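Hi V.,

You were right to ask for the full record rather than a summary. Here it is.
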Amino acid sequence: MPHLTTPPAAGQAATEAGRLGLGVPGYAHPLLAPVEWAELTRPGTPLHWAVLNVTDGPGGRPDPHCTEAAAKLRRAGGAILGHLAMRDGERSFGELLSDAHRFRDWYGADGFYLADAPAGKAELASVRRVADALRGLGEGLRIVLGHGTHPYEGYTETADQLVTFAGTWADYRWSQVAEWTADHPPETFCHLVHGVPRTHLEEALRIARWQGAGTIWFTDRRGAADRDPWASMPGYWDEIVSRIGPGVSE
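Predicted structure:
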């Protein structure tokens, strides 16, 4: 059972405003993960968004395989987010905007995932400047900040969604939620957890709902120095889709 800094009732009430769905933090290239990308277009998949990361960004030229995968997902009603590597604020404003333009021009990105976004109060103004510029690239673009931890609350006014947890199941099952999150709807928050055993999937979903997350990605894949846990679909893909898909009562 996770430690909570807000009563379970508060988290449960918050989740009633929106249905739990999936956010894919970055499958492998469509040539390496064709099944994974195809599964996202299956009718009934509770997908909120999927991140497209060609080569730590949009790459140096349009990739026809990524163009095709992005187009198919968008035709199926999904949202493609371009991966912008903030590197905890080390990337310049110009570099980020250049990558964003290429994602829009080449892949028709519906928004952007700002990976390794800063989380401190001191960096809020610079992140807000980037987010405001990104919104200027098109109407209705979605901005997700990939903090991976609970940031300063002011970031909720900067982006559509904050990733407030990204890490292992061992850490997630005992994680704490910041008290200020109770003042915001579940669609504000996303949790990304790897190494979740099939036998603990229901417990993980319960934690997400208690902590007021509206978007999740749980996988049994494990990270290592040479292995990205987000690159392939969970071994229990069908099960997680059935547990949170349309028609599932929460």
